[in-house]
Amino acid sequence: MEIRSVGVVGAGQMGNGIAHVFALAGYDVLLTDISQAALDKALTLIDRNLERQASRGKITPEEHQAARGRIRTTLTLTDLGQCDLIIEAATERETVKAAIFEDLLPHLKPETILTSNTSSISITRLASRTDRPEKFMGFHFMNPVPVMQLVELIRGIATDDETYKTLHQVVEKLGKTAASAEDFPAFIVNRILMPMINEAVYTLYEGVGSVKSIDESLKLGANHPMGPLELADFIGLDTCLAIMNVLHDGLADTKYRPCPLLVKYVEAGWLGRKTQRGFYDYR
Ligand code: CAA
């Protein structure tokens, strides 16, 4: 099946990055969220990031304008019904994601492929609540989407080969690299990355190092582009906690126990860059 139009649900940091890369690759994009303010903010960020790529010679000004022209927005979720591919990139809560698919289903074309950008929730379970589990897949982008090369492709138990092949071709057209992961909690990237971030928070909690020394150690000692605490702030501490909870519940192993300090920060509303405060103060 050839994909031409893509509906992106959720205009947050992942959703706007996904809209950006699809538009740049020539797809028609329809982006939706629950408030006009969220859509306006997303368009401003997309423009800024396209501009950044143009100013560094990665794309031409014409490509910037063409990509921007391919992105439309709507506040009405059901407007996405005619898209060939749906990418759900809403809040990392299963009830929210399930409700979005439930609302969309009666308006979809029979051939539309459904995907979720979930970083950890079971694809098989999300798919089982739709009318097309064979056309449902995990489609997991990394943040910042315009920069990161990888896309995880996660098949649910019922996903058919045609759906997998179609999405693999889409990833190639985006100029990115697909990695296949089986449908187990947090897949590959977050199965490995999140316990490392959680361990960095324990290292802070137990007084082994300061925020600065922990981050510098991993940057200078292991060549990571960002320290683990800086990266946690970048991803969002609520997202990090949600993923640790999925690992802890799904694999029933105490090695995935979320650090109490991570829980406390999230309870305080210190979610990282998006709230101007996390392990660092951005105010
Ligand atoms: N849009 C477009 N381009 C962007 C961008 C964006 N949002 N953010 C950065 N860039 C570009 C810059 O323009 C720059 O381009 P050039 O190479 O052409 O100069 C390049 O990316 C590097 O950016 P900067 O020079 O501003 O800053 P940097 O060198 O410190 O890199 C970074 C920034 C790319 C974010 C780097 O720090 C990094 O790779 N960090 C780790 C990110 C990471 O691990 N992401 C995965 C998180 S896990 C995840 O996403 C999964 C999940 O489910 C939670």
Explain the overall architecture.
By secondary structure, this protein is of the alpha/beta class. The chain folds into 2 domains: 5-181, NAD(P)-binding Rossmann-like Domain (Rossmann fold), CATH 3.40.50.720; 189-275, Orthogonal Bundle (N-(1-d-carboxylethyl)-l-norvaline Dehydrogenase, domain 2). The chain is 46% helix and 14% strand. The protein has 11 helices and 8 strands. It has an 8-stranded mixed β-sheet, with helices on both faces. Helix 1 (13-24) crosses helix 3 (61-69), helix 7 (189-205) crosses helix 9 and helix 10 (237-251) crosses helix 11 (260-267). The chain is globular and about 55 Å long. The N and C termini lie far apart (48 Å). The mean pLDDT is 97. Acetoacetyl-coenzyme A binds at residues 49, 52-53, 56, 58, 119, 142-144, 146-148, 189-190, 193, 225-226, 231, 235, 239. It comes from Halodurantibacterium flavum. GO terms for molecular function: 3-hydroxybutyryl-CoA dehydrogenase activity.
Blueprint of the fold:
Blueprint: E1 5-9, H1 13-24, E2 28-32, H2 36-55, H3 61-69, E3 71-74, E4 85-88, H4 94-104, E5 113-116, H5 123-128, E6 136-141, E7 150-155, H6 161-173, E8 177-181, H7 189-205, H8 211-222, H9 228-235, H10 237-251, H11 260-267
Parallel strand pairs: 1-2, 1-4, 2-3, 4-5, 5-6, 7-8
Antiparallel strand pairs: 6-7
Helix pairs in contact: 1-2, 1-3, 2-3, 7-9, 7-10, 10-11
The structure holds acetoacetyl-coenzyme A.
